[in-house]
Structure formats: structure tokens, C-alpha cells
Amino acid sequence: MKFYRAFIRIFNSFVLILIIGVVWVRVFDKDSLSFYMTDTSVGEKLFESRDCFTCHGIGGKDPQVAEYPHLNGQPSTYLHTQIKDIRSGLRSNGMTSIMKVAVDQVRDDELRELARYLNQVE
Ligand code: HEC
Is 24 a residue whose pLDDT tops 90? Predict the structure, then answer.
């Protein structure tokens, strides 16, 4: 009987820790949540409404100028960092200024959606 009670107590603790973990990720940790999110329709719409496709082509896979990069299928964390670095000026080479104008007004949460979307375009 004693063993049974101890078991229930430990089991309850695990359930409690699990619930706290899920709540934590849902409420505070948007980045790891996006790892589990598979809906990329928000990013897809942004890629159109923010005119990204005019240079990178539909889905980022058909650049209008041969020197412009392909975006589809690259790791979302890489894409996210690159867009942020271009926006902040940290990344700056001969072609970056062309792109910078396009991302100056894009919000941080939108960048994340864009990066997640482009990663999933095949
Ligand atoms: C006016 C043309 C133009 C528009 C519009 C544009 N880009 Fe770009 N983009 C570029 C060019 C040129 C580069 C290469 C910049 C460089 O070499 O530093 C680039 C680079 C990138 C990169 C880095 C890719 C890599 O492999 O390093 C990402 C990600 C990106 N663009 C996403 C976007 C998104 C998202 C939008 C829309 C918000 C957008 N771009 C709008 C021209 C554009």
C-alpha cells in the first residue's frame, strides 16, 4: 500500500511537470513552439503581400536575376538569421542594399513566419 501511494505521488509529479512544460512552451517560448507548427500559410501570404516574390520568384525558387539566391528548402534558422542581418545591416555586400529596402518594414514575427514557410517549399 505504501509503495502504491509513493508511486501515485511520483506519477502526479511527472504529470504536473509535463503540464507546466506544455504551458511554458505555449505561452512563453514562441520559438520552440514554431518547431511544432506545420501551418505555413501565413508565411506564404506574407511572401506575396511583402513583394518578396518579385525578386525571388514564387516560393523563393525562381530568382528573377541569376545572382539572387534561391530561398526554398534552406534551414529556417539560417533564413531567419540572414533576413535579420540584412535588415540590421550586419550582413552587407554588393547586393544586400537591393534586398534591405524590402525587409525594412517587416516585423520580427513576420520574419519567423517567412523563414518557416520558405524552409518547407520544395
Ligand atoms: C528587390 C529585390 C528583392 C526583394 C523584393 C526581396 N529580396 Fe531577398 N534578396 C535579394 C537579394 C539581391 C539578396 C542577396 C543579398 C546579399 O547577397 O546580401 C537577397 C537575399 C535574401 C535572403 C538570404 C538568402 C541566403 O541564402 O543567404 C533571404 C532569406 C531573403 N532574401 C528573403 C527575402 C524575403 C523574405 C523578402 C520579402 C520580405 C525578400 N527577400 C525580398 C533581393 C530581394
Answer: no
